[in-house]
Design goal:
The complex is a heterodimer of chains A (185) and B (439).
Chain A lengths: L3 H7 L8 H27 L3 H21 L3 H27 L13 H23 L13 H8 L4 H22 L3
Helix pairs in contact in A: 2-3, 3-4
Chain B lengths: L12 H36 L15 H10 L11 H19 L15 E3 L8 E3 L8 H22 L3 H32 L4 H7 L14 H4 L3 H13 L11 H4 L9 H26 L13 H25 L5 H31 L8 H64 L1
The chains are: A mainly alpha (185), B mainly alpha (439).
Chain lengths: 185, 439
C-alpha cells in the first residue's frame, strides 16, 4: 500500500479508468469548462479594462486545469508560468502604466464589435467542426498515462527538434524586432 | 485496481487522512515559523542597529508577534470609498495562498543517511503507510514552485490597483516590472539545478545531493558546489528581489510610497499581507536549502531518525533567514534603474552563460561530447570554451550598451540644441505676429 505522498512517483504505469472515476473527472471538467465560458464572456463584456485582464486570467487558469485533467502536468505548469506569471503580468503592467482608471471606463466599447463576434462564431464553428470530424465520439485511450516532463523533453529534442528550433528563432527574431521598433538607438 | 493517472495505485481513506494531517502540520509549522521569523527579524535588526528590539511580551519578547497580531485583529477594517471592493478583498488572500502552497513541496525532515530515501513509515496500528516529510512530492516540484512564485505578484498588483489610490498603484506598477525582470534569472539559475540533478521533484533533488558513506553527508555533493556557486548567488539575489525584501523593496518603499501596495489596508487584511511576506521569506529559505544545500539530509549525530533531518533543515534554514535579515539591516535600497540593470544586464546574461557551460560539462561527463581521449582534458577544454564564449558575449553586450548610450546621448545633445532653435522660431513668429498686428 502506497501513501498519497509517494503516489506521484510510482504512477507512470498506465491504468484503466473505472466508470466511477470517469464520472468524477468528467464532472470536474464540466465545472471548469463552465467557469471558463463564463469568464470568457465576462471578459469581452466588462467595461473595466483591469477586470477584463483578470477574467482572461481565469480563462488561462481554466486551460491549465484542463491540462491537469488530461495528465499533461508539464504543459499545465508551463501554462501557469508563462501565461499567468509572465504574459498577464506584463499586460497588467501595460494597462496600469497607460490607463488604470479606477472604476468603469464608460467608453470602453468597440463600434465594429459585430466583426469580432462574427469571427469568434466562425472560429468556433471551424474548430468545433474539425475537432468533431477528427475525434467524433472517440474516448480517451484506456491506458492513458501521465506525460512525464522527461518524456516531453525527449520528444521535443529528438522528434520535434526542427520545429522547436525554428520556433525559437522566430521568437528571437520577434523579440529583436520589437526592440528595434520600440527604440531607435 | 483502477484510477486516474494521477491517482494510480488507488487512494483509500487512510491516504486522504494522511494528506490532510500532513497539510495541517505544514500549515501550523509555517504559521509558527512565520511568527518566529517576524520576532527574529525585529530582534536581529534591532541588535544590528544597536537597539534591543522587542523584549517585553513573553521571554525575550517572543510573544511580540502574537500581541501585534491580536491588536491588528481588533482594529477597524476599512475599505476606501474609491476602492474596487472585490479586488480589494480578494488581494490579501491571493498573497497568502501561493506563499503556503509553495511550502508544500519543501521536504522538511526525513532520514536521508545511509541510503535512506527520506520516507518514514507510520506505525502498524495506523496502517503502516510510507510517507515523505512534505505535503506533496509532485513530479514537477520545482516547476510548481516557479509557477506559485509567479502567482505571488498578483496579490500585490491587485491590492495596489484595487485600493483606488495613487501610491499603491505606483507600487503595483513597480511590482509587475520587478517580477518580470527577476523571474527569468530565477528560472535560469534553477535550470542549472535541474541540469545537474536530472530531476524536478524536490525529494529527488535532495536524494541527488546525498553522498554514499560519510553518513550521507558530503558537502561536495550539494548543488551549490556541483553547479559552481554562480547559480546559487544569482538565485539568492533574484529570490530577494522576488520576495520584495530589502535592498529590492521598492514596492513598499515607505519614504516614497507611504506603505506601497498595503497603504490603504488595515486590520486583518493588513495582517494577511504581513503574514504572506514573512511566510514567503521562510519558504524561499526552505527552497534554497532544498535546492542548493541538501535539504534535510545530514549525518545522524543523534539517533533521532527523521527528526534529525528536521534539525538539519532548521539549522540550514536559519542561516539563510539570518542572511535575509542581514541584507535588510546592511544594504541601502537600490534605485529603480539599478534594479533593472542588475536584473537584465548582469543576472540574466551570467546565468545564461553559466547554464550553457554546465550543459557542455554535463555532455562531457556523460560521454556524448569529446574532443580528446581523456575526460579531464575535455572538461578543461569545455570550461575554456565556455569562458571564451562568455567573455565574447559579455564584450558584445557591453559594446551594445555603450553604442546605445552614446547614440542616445548624441540624440539628447541634438535635442538640447533643438529647443533653442524652436524658441527663436516661435519668438520670430511672435515678432512677425506683433508686427502684423501692428499693421
Amino acid at each position: 500500500m502506497m501513501s498519497s505522498a509517494l503516489l506521484a512517483i510510482q504512477s507512470t504505469n498506465p491504468i484503466a479508468l473505472t466508470p466511477n472515476e470517469l464520472w468524477v473527472i468528467n464532472t470536474f471538467f464540466y465545472v471548469i469548462a463552465a467557469v471558463g465560458i463564463v469568464a470568457a464572456l465576462k471578459m469581452v463584456t466588462t467595461k473595466n479594462v483591469v477586470h477584463a485582464a483578470l477574467y482572461l486570467l481565469v480563462v488561462l487558469t481554466v486551460v491549465a486545469a484542463t491540462y491537469i485533467v488530461l495528465g499533461a502536468e508539464f504543459a499545465a505548469a508551463t501554462q501557469v508560468m508563462v501565461y499567468i506569471g509572465a504574459v498577464m503580468v506584463l499586460l497588467l503592467f501595460g494597462v496600469m502604466l497607460t490607463r488604470a482608471k479606477i472604476g468603469d471606463d464608460g467608453d470602453l466599447d468597440y463600434d465594429s464589435k459585430w466583426i469580432g463576434g462574427l469571427s469568434a462564431v466562425s472560429m468556433f464553428a471551424v474548430m468545433g467542426y474539425s475537432l468533431w470530424e477528427a475525434f467524433g465520439t472517440d474516448e480517451l485511450p484506456a491506458d492513458m498515462a501521465v506525460q512525464r516532463t522527461g518524456q516531453v523533453a525527449n520528444s521535443i529534442f529528438s522528434q520535434y527538434i526542427v520545429p522547436f528550433e525554428a520556433l525559437s528563432m522566430l521568437l528571437l527574431a520577434a523579440l529583436i524586432g520589437a526592440v528595434v521598433v520600440a527604440r531607435r538607438d | 485496481m483502477g484510477g486516474h493517472p494521477f491517482l494510480a495505485d488507488g487512494v483509500d481513506f487512510g491516504d486522504v487522512i494522511l494528506a490532510v494531517v500532513l497539510a495541517l502540520v505544514a500549515l501550523v509549522l509555517t504559521l509558527v515559523m512565520t511568527m518566529l521569523m517576524v520576532w527574529f527579524e525585529r530582534k536581529v535588526v534591532g541588535r544590528l542597529q544597536n537597539r534591543i528590539g522587542p523584549n517585553v511580551a513573553g521571554p525575550f519578547g517572543l510573544l511580540q508577534t502574537m500581541a501585534d497580531g491580536m491588536k491588528l485583529l481588533f482594529k477597524e477594517d476599512l475599505i476606501p470609498a474609491k476602492a474596487d471592493k472585490v479586488l480589494f478583498v480578494l488581494a490579501p488572500f491571493l498573497a497568502v495562498v501561493p506563499a503556503f502552497l509553495t511550502f508544500t513541496v519543501v521536504p522538511i525532515a526525513g532520514d536521508f543517511s545511509n541510503g535512506g530515501s527520506g520516507s518514514s513509515t507510520l506505525p502498524g496500528f495506523l496502517g503502516s503507510r510510507e510517507f515523505l516529510w512534505q505535503v506533496a512530492d509532485v513530479p514537477i516540484g520545482i516547476l510548481f514552485f516557479l509557477a506559485m512564485s509567479s502567482l505571488a505578484v498578483y496579490g500585490i498588483v491587485l491590492a495596489g490597483y484595487g485600493s483606488g489610490s495613487k501610491y499603491p498603484l505606483i507600487s503595483s506598477v513597480r511590482a509587475t516590472a520587478q517580477a518580470i525582470s527577476y523571474e527569468a534569472a530565477l528560472g535560469l539559475s534553477l535550470a542549472a539545478v535541474f541540469l545537474v540533478s536530472g530531476a524536478l521533484s524536490t525529494n529527488q533533488i535532495v536524494l541527488n545531493q546525498v553522498a554514499e558513506g560519510y553518513g550521507g553527508f558530503n558537502f561536495t555533493r550539494w548543488n551549490v558546489v556541483t553547479t559552481g556557486l554562480i547559480p546559487f548567488i544569482v538565485f539568492l539575489i533574484a529570490a530577494t528581489a522576488e520576495l520584495n525584501r530589502p535592498p529590492f523593496d521598492l514596492v513598499e518603499a515607505e519614504q516614497e510610497l507611504v506603505g506601497g501596495f498595503h497603504t490603504e489596508y488595515s486590520s486583518f487584511r493588513f495582517a494577511l499581507f504581513f503574514l504572506a511576506e514573512f511566510m514567503n521569506t521562510v519558504t524561499m529559505g526552505g527552497i534554497i536549502v532544498t535546492l542548493f544545500f541538501g535539504g534535510p539530509s545530514g549525518p545522524q549525530l543523534l539517533p533521532l531518525g527523521a527528526f534529525m533531518g528536521f534539525i538539519w533543515f532548521f539549522l540550514k534554514l536559519m542561516v539563510f533567514l539570518f542572511i535575509f535579515v542581514w541584507f535588510r539591516a546592511t544594504l541601502p535600497r537600490v534605485r529603480y534603474d539599478q534594479l533593472m540593470d542588475l536584473g537584465w544586464k548582469v543576472l540574466i546574461p551570467i546565468s545564461l552563460a553559466w547554464l550553457l557551460m554546465l550543459g557542455g560539462l554535463q555532455l562531457v561527463r556523460s560521454g556524448d561530447l569529446s574532443f580528446v581521449d581523456s575526460t579531464s582534458a575535455d572538461l578543461v577544454i569545455v570550461i575554456a570554451l565556455g569562458l571564451a564564449i562568455g567573455l565574447l558575449g559579455y564584450a558584445m553586450l557591453n559594446a551594445a550598451i555603450r553604442t546605445s548610450r552614446s547614440e542616445r546621448l548624441a540624440e539628447e545633445g541634438l535635442k538640447l540644441i533643438a529647443p533653442k532653435s524652436q524658441d527663436s522660431e516661435s519668438l520670430a513668429g511672435h515678432q512677425t505676429g506683433t508686427t502684423q498686428g501692428g499693421h
